[in-house]
Amino acid sequence: MPLVEVENLRIDFGGPPAVDGVSLRLEQGERFGIIGESGSGKSLTALAITGLLPEAATASGTIRFAGNPLPTEEKTLARLRGRHIGMVFQEPMTALNPLMTIGAQIGEAITLVGRDAVPTAMPALLAEVGLEPDHARRYPHQLSGGQRQRAMIAMALAGQPELMIADEPTSALDVITQRMVLDLIAEVCRRRGMTLLFISHDIKAVAVLCQRIGVMRQGRLIEVGDTATLLAAPQQAYTERLLAASRMAPPAAAPRRLGETLLRVEGVSKNYGQGGVWPWKRPVLQAVDGARFEIASGECVALVGPSGCGKTTLARLIVGLDKASAGSFVLGATRYRGSDLPKGLRADLSLVFQDPFGSFDPRRTIAQSVAEPLQLVNTLSASEQQNRVAEAVMAVGLEPGMLARYPHEFSGGQRQRLAIARALVTRPRLVVLDEPVSALDVSVRGEVLALLARLRAEHGLTYLIISHDLDMVGAMADRVLVMERGRIVEEGRPAELFARPRHRLTKALMAARLPALG
Amino acid sequence: MNARRLLAHPSLTIGIAASLLLALLGLISLVWTPYPIEQVQIARRFADPGLAHWLGTDHLGRDMLSLIMSGTLTSFTVALLAVLIGIGIGVPMGLAAAAWGGAVEWLVLRISDLTFAFPAVIVAILVTTLIGPGEANAVLAIGIFNIPVFARVARGGALSIATQDYVAAARLAGLGNAAIAWRHLLPNIMSLIIVQGTIQLSLGILAEAGLSYIGLGTQPPATSLGLMLRDAQSLFLIHPWLSIAPGVTIVLIVIALNIAGDGLRDALDPRLRRQELGHAAG
Fold this sequence. Notes:
The structure holds two protein chains of two kinds. Chain A is an alpha/beta fold. Chain A has two domains: 4-246, P-loop containing nucleotide triphosphate hydrolases (Rossmann fold, 3-Layer(aba) Sandwich), CATH 3.40.50.300; 262-274 and 281-467, P-loop containing nucleotide triphosphate hydrolases (Rossmann fold). Chain A contains 19 helices and 20 strands. In chain A, a hairpin with a 2-residue loop joins strand 4 and strand 5 (68-69). The mean pLDDT of chain A is 84. Chain B has one domain (10-269): MetI-like (MetI-like fold). Chain B has helices at residues 3-7, 10-31, 64-100, 102-117, 120-131, 135-162, 165-172, 177-213, 225-233, 241-268, 270-281. Chain B is built from eleven helices and no strands. The chains are: A alpha/beta, B mainly alpha. The A-B interface holds A 13, 18, 38-39, 41, 43-44, 47, 54, 56, 316, 319-321, 343, 346, 349-351, 353-355, 358-364, 369, 372-376, 422 and B 164-166, 168-175, 183-184, 187-188, 270, 279-282.
């Protein structure tokens, strides 16, 4: 008998269906993965199985858990969720109560299922997810992202569930932590013989963890199959596209000739004082610690490292959003320390942000936003400005006719294209790209990366890419810098660096890399 | 934000309609009242509500309906001007605090702390001793009271906007703090300010009534709802209607404005809207 049986599930919010005719069966002890892009209905399907759909949703179809239809009464449903289903969410910081210690929250999950065994069950659970006993006394903000996700898993396991639903549990984590959490989930499922429903947009993570995979698109489950079969011979064109997008092709172009040094980073440090009444007693956090490197013009340099290693801070310093505590930058012939970057030079630098949704003012048209940096170039007349904007928008493959629209009318991929257009509108020499594709759907990532590569070739741009995605870096960069706790610990050409990592962190990053598909 | 969206919130429609109706009642008094409000006719004083005087007459024989219409206008004008003072000074202060930070922010916060420490009545007494009682005095006192309220709302809203990437993008584009505050922060906190404006409007009407009641606000022969309450106070046991009519009017105005304010918040607040979208995206 299958543990979960979904038949012809349809969910809508009063408009077109968000989930349309989904049927699936999860066998006891099976690890099933659903992949799909944002808005494909994969999370809604999981929520429907737990009976946690938002109130505005209307659902039809049948869901059976262990042979019985899902109870309609809230109390029975809650008991079913507490005892038989464990859930792990995407963002552990918001899924955990910030005012309760981890131990109290796990304890609550244990008592909720009606067992008085907190003192004995707690240490076992903590050990099972790889947390120290004294972690139980800490609050969520005192733990790292990976530890928080472990705590979430411990809570999900507290009720000895038969089914664990993990909804994008690793997409907020960096590569190394992601791998550890995935391994932990796999191990726990194996040991407990637990059924897993794993939801992700990352086909590689699903491939590592799951025995069977379902592909969702626009509310429909378009393909289901065993992992090996599905990856080797996808039946649907869409699955094939997803697979192709996650295999990054190495750059075809030969390494181009590099010009002279464009940017020199000379021992830059950035300290933040934290809390404390007396300024001189405050503990100092060194976000960037004596970083030193050079970027030649025409080069594409990648800066990789785990989250919190200071790579984004360094990027903000370079483009002049913040001021370095020590050291300086030399751009061309000008020396600056960050926000004192002379206005005339600002046009030479630009930054593409990670999140395409936050990087445009919702109350201004795209034309206004894209044209904004042009005021750095004083010599342009109004019509020249318009031409520049139109040119930049066409360069990223969009129509100038779209310029009168507002940001919410564009998809994530289009917005990131527009963000690139804005970064290019002043014809900068150095473009800093902060995780340029990590917020985008897999199928769009390839397009945006190809666009970046084309623009670089056409305009002779220099890139500094900030990322934790080694596959992307390997495909794009001429040179890779590895950063740990504010220091650059290793550098080299991607092929050599990935083949023979020397530093401990680089080795860890390489080891955490998910195996390439087929 | 289109009209249909606004109409989807019934409380908003009711609140705005009621507020506008009451404001209109006041505005009509500019061009027409059933009787001139200065007309004192002791002979017809304390008339009961009837056909000639819908709401009766007061102790000087003035028509109550005319007085209430005119008083409503005074209340609205005073409260509205006070809100404009609050927005005009408070919002730039709050924006400056968020955009510049550091010493500017410290200064703005301390100034608003200081202003918060003085209730409107104290300010009104101060202003009265300086320039004498009157409507302008009430406007000034309530306006000063409104400044820190708007400064805090503007700063709070702007701080959350200031962390957005598009503000960083504007900084990269070479925009100064003032330009960022004007182009990016202000438009995005406008809805917060409108909502706070409605709430301060209703508080201002209450405050004006209070100030007039203790004799620091509107002076006769002009009238306001608070002044009517004061005149009727000593007669409450004999002619309770004279207190009830203006009192109920104040209550109605305040309720209407509060309903409109709550509705506006629901309809305008982008955070609430984004949450809806987030849930829908699932």
